[in-house]
Amino acid sequence: MGLSSCKLQSRKQVGSSWVGNESENPFEIILNKKDRTCLRESFQRLQEPKEIVGLIFVDIVNDIEPDLRTVFGVNRAPKAAMLSMPKLGGHVARFTDLFEQITSMLGVSENLTGAWQLIRKTGRVHAKQAFLEQNFNQLEKNYFEIVLNVFEQRLIPYLTGEKEEPVPEGQAPRKVRFAQSYTPDVVTAVWKKFFAILVTQMTDAFELERTKMRNSQNQKTLAPHQHIENEVKKKKRISERQSEIEHTANSVEKGPEQLFEDPF
Ligand code: HEM
């Protein structure tokens, strides 16, 4: 994938997130306009993308990465009920929405900067997930890569039209919405490039955010010595004030200075 080595040198701020120069936007460099349109059109070919994404995620948590069952709150749920669990069901919905939004930004509105920002933001937010914060390892356990590799194998056949979408029980088979105008090889190549961009960008944004979080955590753990110093200063101030009060009290106890008549 090699993109992580591509250093984002002159960074500029767009909205709240840092991205490189437009000339470095991987959605611009790696995908041409035709690729981006193909990405969008092939995704739109799916009638129920959330259904497929759901099936793939159920396979991931059951067969590929059972450690993720706890993360998605499906540890004790039977397979058939997993997608109705809020965390897994919610993630499937967000994942599908992200694909819908990104493919639209790339293939319809051509908002490539927005697409780049969105994918980096998605990488960043995952640093807040305790499981990933602790277990994500770029070289051994890159969970973005693991998940998207499964998508590469299982989603692409639906996008090329080689595999028909599953029809939920009791529903009539669906008609294909429009004829696929790209060959399966073209669709496959475009989606592989797309997934590679997602892995690289999400990983990079995740790692930067995790480092930032760890640095600020370290600062917090260094702070106690400052707390102690402050505590000492505070005690000193209190004891100074205390002795001032006692001094004043003593003077008051003595009562006001009495003036005696000069005997002489
Ligand atoms: C949230 C996508 C992988 C766990 C999200 C969100 C998106 C997303 C779009 C919502 C972000 C927001 O609120 O702004 C993706 C994509 C992945 C991926 C594209 C590609 C591989 C993972 C993995 C885990 C994970 C491997 C495993 C720990 C979560 C969790 C949330 C989340 C726990 C919190 C929100 C919720 O409860 O649904 N993800 N995700 N994600 N993701 Fe992922």
TrEMBL record:
SUPFAM superfamilies: Globin-like (SSF46458). Keywords: Heme, Iron, Metal-binding. Gene3D superfamilies: Globins. GO terms for molecular function: heme binding; metal ion binding; oxygen binding. Residues 215-264 are annotated as: Disordered. This is Glb-12. It comes from Pristionchus pacificus.
